[in-house]
Design goal:
Layout: H1 7-16, H2 20-41
Length: 42
């Protein structure tokens, strides 16, 4: 999985100045949506 998918989430976290816990939750949601998309394509 290329790192280009992770960069936007980190930039969004810095932009909104979210606490580290919220960023981790967002990352988990993004990973869940990403894997769901991959499974749907397969």
């Amino acid at each position: 999985m290329p790192n280009s998918h992770l960069a936007p989430g980190i930039q969004d976290g810095r932009q909104f100045n979210l606490p580290p816990g919220s960023i981790i939750q967002i990352k988990l949601i993004q990973l869940f949506l990403f894997f769901s998309l991959v499974q749907s394509l397969w």
